[in-house]
């Protein structure tokens, strides 16, 4: 496998101006014809044109209408090279290929999901459709003609506007689409199948009417109301907050059951994993509703940050992902509770990014190299890149400034086609110039991996009436980066919205005229993605728990006064209910383990369980009162007050039988399924019987069982049959629950090792994502280390390993 380096970037020798694609879709094979207008970057260039291609059968190549013979080109398993090309300003290249979508289980390129055709091209899937320069700096205007059997595939979609459609012989029909905007091939999309649409319209602020369509199988249409609501809310929000208006007259969303990730922002034809589109009160929880809102927003926001403004190469991924995640977080915060959203986002960051930063896959916001780009989009990818968003939101302090900065970026890059391809430097310069701001050594975040550890020492001098805060920062070594430079760390502190700019390894700030020793609330709202070690005492922390006006900084610490403190949080009617629910929920086992020098899953499990029990019995009266006061007999509504009420109620107790929506019912099921026995078996069976026809609900049922702490759970997982779409809930759930995955007899590790090898033959992206559960193996005791290492070695020795799995396994062992 080949490692690709940022420092090796060179401009392409040839640009593609227009691309006319034609697909003849069939059950056994699909024929793809492409007609490309090519122009050399340097006039008269004699450079060869190297096209990417993977799992393609080449039928023919023509240059300027002339068929090339076998000796005129070179073909290997990954490339088609054309060594001699006309020395002209531009010429026409025509390529015909044959592909087999029904056999494509990698869900990358063109594949079939539940009988329908669909595509996924980011990052490098277009090369599985046709021979092409599969890189983001090739921006071309596309047309796409799709032809298929009319009864099997009545709906034919691609990017842009529908130009014409009609019937052809043999029961077939066609549709011709044209995308007026230049785009990189990773944004290409095609869908063909039996689908129905929920239709709506959105009138933009300049008065244009955009037609909106959400496509699913007809029977699922009633479940798309929330997705449509989310889309319209996102379109309005982007206009109101960023002044960004949608730029076409049609916006399509298609929901498909088989999808490697959450969703994909293809120009005007977003394709989604069904679980992020379909929702009804009976089949989706509040968390699902919130995720749908956030992801529909995210993909929609990409239309500007990503699609119109495009990354030059994949190393610049954070430009589109960091910024778009930042935008979707702001959107969700504006639609719900800002504090609760922040707590949830930060906890995800702690659970996924911090461990990744401390493991073999550690990389800076802009990686220096990759083997398979897909590995940089793990479940963690957005969270990783989100750190940039954290910094931005603090640095800018308000959306107005972000907005002006965004506008500046967009204007400065829209001068001509090539300058639209942006790099992190362009982004940084635009931020700095648009706001005339001093970002000091902020750029270090782009090149240094690892989570900074910031130590804070405070001292009060009563005589001088001064208070001092001493900061020191240290970034631990990461693979290939033994030593680090200081970076810009914004620290928000109590008293107004002061930001301390920590830019050196050691720095002291002295505050004068301070009447008594203050208890500082530092890094308010989590102002930088760092680990903080303060010299605050338990009493200080308890004081903050009770009094901090920044809800984010009310920490969880076990203290005799802790229960009492939580009791007062529970009965404080001035606090947001969803915040209370978060505040009284203990951090997960993974999050706690990440803070230990040697992670001890058994100890964490026992202690956490003990604390939970203790809290439940000590706070029983308060909790029962909460359950009583927050019950509702009214119909399910997804809005902040109702969601907050349900969240709070379900922390106290939950009722399986009387529940009228999945949020309440699933909370009850989750609680009951923690204890082995007849009740557990009965409710699990009851739930399955009721929902066996709805695979999204069945997935949740799988997740609940796979992530269960009941002893010897690996046996139960073996017994549950799975398909590829259930892998995430079943295998992901199992590995995410420490007790059984880290079982001392190695059964959990062996289970994962075997699965990865099997899965890699079917779907390398999913296999490598599952494998990353091993990447932190060096954090455990010696016995566990040996067991995990043996599995990694076993995987490395497997035949025909994919590049995806190779990258994670080899880096983990290094
Ligand atoms: N941009 C895509 C992720 C693509 C992952 C490719 N393996 C969707 C998103 O940003 O949400
Ligand atoms: Zn994205």
Q: What report would you give on this structure?
A:
Among the domains are: 13-194, Immunoglobulin-like, CATH 2.60.40.1730; 639-813, Zincin-like fold. Helix content is 37%, strand content 21%. The protein contains 25 helices and 30 strands. The strands form eight sheets. An eight-stranded mixed sheet has the order 6-5-9-3-2-12-15-14, with no helix packed on it. A five-stranded mixed sheet has the order 17-18-19-21-20, covered by helices on one side. The protein has a four-stranded antiparallel sheet with strand order 10-11-16-13, with no helix packed on it. It starts with a strand and ends with a helix. Residues 415-419 have low confidence and may be disordered. The chain binds (3S)-3,7-diaminoheptanoic acid and zinc ion (ZN).
What is the strand and helix layout of this fold?
Blueprint lengths: L3 E2 L8 E11 L5 E11 L8 E4 L4 E7 L2 E2 L6 E2 L3 E4 L8 E9 L9 E5 L2 E5 L19 E10 L5 E4 L2 E8 L3 E12 L6 E4 L2 E8 L5 E8 L8 H18 L7 E7 L6 E2 L4 E5 L12 H16 L8 E2 L5 H19 L2 H20 L11 E2 L10 H16 L2 H15 L7 E2 L1 H12 L8 H4 L5 E9 L4 E9 L14 E4 L6 E4 L3 E7 L18 E4 L3 H10 L12 H11 L6 H7 L5 H5 L7 H18 L1 H10 L10 H13 L9 H11 L5 H14 L3 H12 L6 H7 L7 H9 L2 H4 L5 H16 L1 H8 L10 H15 L6 H11 L1
Helix pairs in contact: 1-2, 2-3, 3-4, 3-5, 4-5, 6-7, 11-15, 14-15, 17-18, 18-20, 22-23, 22-24, 23-25, 24-25
The structure holds (3S)-3,7-diaminoheptanoic acid and zinc ion.
